[in-house]
Hints:
The structure holds 2 protein chains of 2 kinds.
Chain A: H1 2-31, H2 34-41, H3 44-50, H4 53-84, H5 89-104, H6 107-121, H7 130-157, H8 160-168, H9 173-203, H10 219-230, H11 234-264
Chain B: E1 6-15, E2 18-28, E3 33-37, H1 44-51, E4 59-64, E5 67-68, H2 76-81, E6 83-86, H3 98-108, H4 114-127, H5 143-155, E7 161-165, H6 173-188, E8 192-196, H7 200-206, E9 209-214, E10 217-222, H8 224-229, H9 234-244
Parallel strand pairs in B: 3-8, 3-9, 6-7, 7-8
Antiparallel strand pairs in B: 1-2, 1-4, 4-5, 9-10
Amino acid sequence: MASLRRRTRQRLILWVQYAVFVGIVALVAFTADWGTLRESFFRLDIARDMFPEVITVNLRNTVLYTLLAFVFGLVLGLILALMRLSKVAPYRWVATAYIELFRGLPALLVLFAVGYGIPTAFPNREIPGGVYGSVALGLGLTAAAYMSETIRAGIQAVPRGQMEAARTLGMSPARAMRTIVLPQAFRIVIPPLTNEIILLTKDSSLVFVLGVTASQIELTKFGTDTLNARVNSTPILVAGLCYLIITLPLSQLVRRLEIRYNKAR
Amino acid sequence: MTHPAIQIQDLHKSFGPVEVLKGIDFEVQPGEVVCVVGPSGSGKSTLLRCVNLLEEPTRGQVFVHGVEVTDPDVDIDAVRRRIGMVFQQFNLFPHLTVLANLTIAQRGVLKRSRSEADRVARENLDRVGLADRAEAYPAQLSGGQQQRVAIARSLSMGPELMLFDEPTSALDPELVGDVLAVMRKLAHDGMTMMVVTHEMSFAREVADRVVFMDGGIVVEQGPPAEVLTAPKHERTRSFLARLLDPAAAVDEP
Ligand SMILES: Nc1ncnc2c1ncn2[C@@H]1O[C@H](COP(=O)(O)OP(=O)(O)OP(=O)(O)O)[C@@H](O)[C@H]1O
Ligand SMILES: [Mg+2]
């Protein structure tokens, strides 16, 4: 009988949770000022004015910044991962120090340091690619720290026998790593790396600190600029929806890949 | 003069404080098939892995065809090219097709052309009876088929010597025979083989010599008829008794 009573109690707890949830939703719905809300967030005319630039310029820039930072971060992350796994102790120290440093710093600070620190330190040099290069560097430096740990875990997840079999066939360590271990490691880390793209997509909103021209503006900056110009919050909603256009398919992709990966094991 | 295929002198290997090989002296002649038997943990795998330097010996020397592999200046990749190795867990490359498993090192290491590598690969697949599975992925094959592919992969490099570490221990009993048949054929073709195995019938039938190891040393060795039928040492006798009738010998030391 004890089990029956426990089940009853569990059901009761569940109902209480539902009730609390419905209560909160109702409270928000009834106390919100819908009229004002619609007036400040759902002005169709303002939304319409944002097109097509919000897609052709700003969404495009967000994607571009994200991809550049991702590619740079991926390459650097791979190098750091290999350094952390190296037999050469100084490589390991450098990589570990780098990872600890950049995981501990806000991306905004790093971006700022790259945008203003490097031009100050090297007044006669320019970061190739202008703002785009600075973004790749500024966001990529931080992303590399995270991605290197993911990649390292992926490499370590490949059974040791794979490296041994490759070496036994006469492959050099580098060739074995490149043709046998890394292809398997990357298969393992595609889902977490895709998550990293999603994080980077949102971090690309920090690019405004670099001071960008009209054609370089990404979604968030465009949203807040338009908000200031029109004294209305609708642009924020439009920008938010644009982010979802990028991130929702990616999340879906991660979920699919994870399911497939779990099945394959 | 011709060198022994494998020559091991005073080989010691420790993992941390634990000495696993305690002074092994041992030779394999070209064309010879040597089976290494012994209880679990006696150091058989470690010995085998010292031959191609997957384990670095702590002390002693290993020569393969007269080349000292324990020499710090040796080109170990070049030495390994001539030594095939087959693992208990197959270790096929799961992201590559069977054919690519057989060609990747031929092309990358031996620099053979694609057509040459393909030809050699298919020849060896044929040799192990899997000519029709070239396009399959390892996961689509049974364990026995995977192990035969692994053998064909080693053979594709044209080794002068093959090492086998319990090649049938991870297989379902009904799949063991196919793999042993391939190995038997290989032995008859004159391949030099060093085989760690628990398959006593294979050792008795195919081996030129059986080496019994226990506790990191070679306890006795000789023709299979001697070592397996009339062992001189008590440790060999009790090991064989245990192997023949595991239940009867449970409380032996
Ligand atoms: N990489 C390693 N690090 C530490 N100890 C090890 C390592 N490899 C092997 N050993 C130890 O060395 C001993 C001998 O191992 P080895 O694998 O050579 O035995 P084996 O005769 O092949 O046994 P089995 O029949 O179980 O395969 C064991 O006690 C094992 O735990
Ligand atoms: Mg073993």
